[in-house]
Amino acid sequence: MTKAVRPKKALGQHFLKDVEVAKRIADTLSGYVGTPVLEIGPGMGMLTRFLLACGHNLSVVELDTESVTYLEHNFPELDGRIITGDFLQSDLLQIVSPPFCVIGNYPYHISSQIFFKVLAYKDHIPCCSGMLQKEVAERLAAGPGSKTYGILSVLLQAWYDVEYLFTVSEQAFNPPPKVKSGVIRIKRNDRTTLNCNEALFKTVVKTSFNQRRKTLRNSMKPLLGKDCPDYILPVFDKRPEQLSVEQFINLTQITERHLKI
């Protein structure tokens, strides 16, 4: 048994110590036993041991070399499946065979980037779950009309059904973070196409929310200019947080049509 890993502030490490919470997080993938699972940032393996106990075909990616050494000594069953590296910089298809699920207790400071990365592999990832800062978790699950509904909410919900599952106290960690955590699960929906230019869809969503307090008639000017004839349409009277995914798709179709004129 190797000594415990020292949490490193620079890596945003807050190691989960609550066994019951770890088990509940592992259970979020109970319907995917048999599908390969990639755990991000396992640390000292609190979640890892429950994922293995559930029978998952598990690989892990860990940036901290001290944690890698700990895992190698304490989880011999992961031999050859502990990847030392940065999840955000990794080619995931070189790590695990698709389709695969993603799970983890995600570092707060990169949790949004992690979900953008998952989106980039949406055709290979049927389910992703895990723990992140409560505020961010709520934002990902927020629907139209919510003040927390934003860019990543729309982009994620275009391809995934998002569930906010439960809240975790600061005291479940060592060291305790300054904020509560939230556990979410996203499952791939049935959508195979947006029926619009996908790159333009992302641009439209980001442009809209860049000035979220303004109506779309104003916030969309960087793309559509000042005198777009389509500004008479009712959608442009709305603010971005009022639009559903389908309405953003429609807005993208309008934008695409205008750019081709």
Question: How would you describe this structure to a colleague?
Answer:
The protein has 261 residues and is of the alpha/beta class. It has 2 domains: 180 residues, Rossmann fold; 63 residues, rRNA adenine dimethylase, C-terminal domain (Helicase, Ruva Protein, domain 3), CATH 1.10.8. Helices cover 34% and strands 17% of the residues. The chain has 10 helices and 9 strands. α3 links the parallel β3 and β4. The radius of gyration is 20 Å and the shape is elongated.
Number of helices: 10
CATH arch. level architecture of the largest domain? 3-Layer(aba) Sandwich
| CATH class group of the largest domain | Alpha Beta
Instruction: Please name the CATH topology of the largest domain.
Output: Rossmann fold
Please give the share of residues in helix.
25-40%
Give the overall average pLDDT.
94
Could you state the order of secondary-structure elements as H and E? EHEHEHEEHEHHEEEHHHH
Query: What number of structural domains do the residues give?
Result: 2
How many angstroms separate the termini? Answer: 68 Å
Task: Specify Rg, calculated over alpha carbons.
Answer: 20 Å
Largest sheet: 7 strands, mixed
Strand content: 15-25%
**Number of strand segments:** 9
Spatial sequence of strands, sheet with the most strands: 4-3-2-5-6-9-7
